[in-house]
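Something for you to look into today, if you have time. Could you write out one complete protein record for me, on any chain you like? Leave the record below and I will have a look.
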Amino acid sequence: MTENPTHPTTPMPPEGYVPAESQVPGIVVFAPQVKTADQDHAVSYACPNCGANIAYDISAGGIACEYCGYVAPIMAAQVGKSAEDYEFTLETLAQANRGWGTQRQVLHCDSCGGELSLSTGALTTSCPFCASNQVNVITSLEETLRPRFLIPFKVSPEDTAPLAMAWLGKGWYHPNALHANVIVQRFTGVYLPFWNFNANVHASWRAQVGYQQTERRYNPRTKSWETHTRTKWVWENGRVPLNIDNLLVPGSSPNHLNHPILTQLYPFQMGELTAYTPDYLAGWQAQAYETTLTEAWEIGKKTIREQAKQACHQKIRSTQVRNFSMTADFSDEAWRYILLPVYLAAYKYEGKIYQVMINGQTRKVAGGKPVAWWKIWLAIAAILTPGGFLTLVGLPLTLLGGIGVFAIVLGIILFVVGVVISFSLYNHALKSEAG
């Protein structure tokens, strides 16, 4: 360590390192110097022929000008599942590039607080998260990590209308006044941030496992042999290896984006991961991560532990388990910061905000739709009426003998079946409204 000429008692940091806050008095700590965004070499997108703004065109597979027909292919390699990942070290985070690698603006929503990155010169009047018109453009900050990989959009904006119309047409219990065109016209193509984790896990479990045992005993009171069944509890243990590959954790805040709806768009075809270049973002919106790497990894570990717990239970030969405990040892943890293509739309109906999303790669649609609850209650009444009617009719008929008992029994059976169907219908409607 070189001596600091200004303060001889303070050592000079190694190249690429800067002093960092120390938790121990008298101890000097150094951390890798954070790499700043290279704004001097930021890419701008103007057509070399006519000077108009150019954008990434899905059908052309490159950046194109809609005015003069200029097309330039994007020279980015498709790396798929072999995309490089990174260890959880300070050096890795410090050496990562920052910003988008191009000049972009930030659209800020005053209503929900959501932010999206826009191409310079792009205009938008509403927020795709909450459908609010209270939006404004602010200066883009270049402090977040730069994505290393993305999956380009495969679904064109023109394809979103028929996909949304087909999805909206499913379900008879939605309001007749829900106009599909209002929703269809709101779709915005956005590259959403995701943390992508890989790890090896070895889960060790221990539990009491119950096995049914049948034995015959002689009953001296009845002077006969009787069969008895009892549960025998046995302590067992085991070890289960688990390989976690391409676990996705959204980088968007759940305050702005409905994560249960987003996860319904899974899976993405990770074999189409491509090296990041700002060209793919030309003319498109993108979002920087709001959930940090550390926060995302904590979420990821909870998901992995739950997967490990399920894997352990699958190894147990009985469904009767008690006093279950498990420890999970992680190794070879690695991460990637990637962008995935999603079309977003938000609309308001009777004061409530609903979100709809389309997987920009696989065309899968998910979202929330309002429910006309009067239709649900009428349907439930129609389902329960036959059973209730037969039961009521059967009561006076019991005076005539067996026919009344038969009607009551049949009525009770139909009523119970109706309750089960009604409960399922009610839950299905709730899930449809929540997305």
About this structure: The helical segments are 90-95, 160-168, 180-184, 259-263, 293-315, 373-397, 402-434. Residues 1-8, 34-42 have pLDDT under 50 and may be disordered. The first strand starts at residue 17 and ends at 20. The radius of gyration is 30 Å.
